[in-house]
Amino acid sequence: MTLTDGGLEARGLVREFTAKDGSVRRAVDGVNLVVRPGELVSVLGPNGAGKTTTVKMLTGLLLPTAGEVLIDGHDVVRSRRRAAMACGFSLGGDTGLYPRLTALQNLEFFGLMYGLRGSRLARRAGELLEEVDLADRSGDLVGSFSRGMKQRLHLARALLHEPSVLILDEPSAGLDPQSAAAMRALVARLTGEGRSILLTTHDMREAEELSSRVVLMKGGRIHVESTAGELRLNAAGRLGHVVSVVFSTAEVPDGIKDCPGAMNIEQDGSAVTLRVSDGAAAVQWVLAAFPGLTTSVAVTPPTLEEVFLDMVAAS
Predict the structure, then answer these.
(1) How is this protein situated with respect to the membrane (predicted)?
(2) Which phi and psi (to 5°) does residue 9 adopt?
């Protein structure tokens, strides 16, 4: 799978590190990634999976040992300037911002680096501070900002030059629920505008809500890649479906324990949650075994978090 009209593409990315004793550790081993225009791809993985090293190679902050990265058709190593102009990235944390400058001064500084000048730069910086809800703190030193405020300023910085490709490393980390929801809405809108967005996150809800596809990394390699829905359905054979039933009676009938394929049962008053091997069969059995006694019945595959934890636990 290759790109013909922009976006982000990584081909056979490898990164090795040599220790003081001469031993070589391969942190990233043959990673291939494609993010098309108008698509958001989330990369998930446990600590040490190679996510951060991969992101640094995608942004040009780290040279690959082998392989190549194309940003809007420009090689990140051989056409560094053109690739940088097509890509915005937010790596979060304290790096990449100047604590002794105000929020506005930070954006003005980085805007100059991207070739923005005068009224165009002032207008763009003002728009972005409004968009990330920092307009009222534009004159405050960044060193006084909370982690969440810095995260928002990082995103504003990434968007300054209106890049077609965005690489966002845990953009909602440190945000309160309201700010995190606003961040997700903004990222969704940017995707809808046709940008190619690569997102790393530990928030499974965020990944499922925003992603066109999800990539699970483990041991420096891509373990599996698919939509969140397909990952959940494919894991149902191992992890089971969840069947939620609410009865019209005061308590759950005793016979619920006889549900075929039941792996786990949790009861709470008139409600019961069943983990079963076959969701459809369990629903049919419940309706037949307790006619007229059910208020609601719902079946869902495992959550994305369960799929992730199952992948991490597998050898």
Answers:
(1) Peripheral membrane protein
(2) -145, 130
Q: Which residues of 248-286 are buried (b: 16+ CB within 10 A; e: fewer)?
A: eeeebbeebeebebbeeeeeeebebebbbbbbeebbebb
- Alpha-carbon distances of 88 from 96, 114, 200, rounded to whole Å: 12, 11, 14
| Number of Cβ atoms within 10 Å of the Cβ of 195 | 23
Which sign does the torsion angle of CA 90, 191, 69, 109 carry? negative
Q: What is the tens place of the pLDDT at every residue in 127-171?
A: 999 999 999 999 999 999 998 899 999 999 999 999 999 999 998
The pTM (predicted TM-score) of the whole model is: 0.88
First to last CA, the chain: 28
d(CA 314, CA 11): 26
- What the block records as the tokens of 278 is 């076959």
Classify residue 30 by burial, with Cβ atoms within 10 Å: 0-12, 13-18, 19+.
middle
Q: What is d(CA 262, CA 162) in angstroms, rounded to the nearest whole number?
A: 52
Question: What whole-number distance in Å separates Cα of residue 155 and Cα of residue 167?
Answer: 10
Tokens matching residue 96: 């990449």
pLDDT in tens, 31-73: 999 999 999 999 999 989 999 999 999 999 999 999 999 999 9
DSSP codes joined into one string, 133-171: T-GGGTTSBGGG--HHHHHHHHHHHHHTT--SEEEEEST
Query: In terms of C-beta density within 10 A (0-12 exposed, 13-18 middle, 19 or more buried), how is residue 117 classed?
Result: exposed
Mean pLDDT of 216-244: 94
Do 82 and 60 form a contact (C-beta atoms < 8 A)?
Answer: no
Domains and CATH numbers, the chain: 8-226 (3.40.50.300), 238-302 (3.30.70.2470)
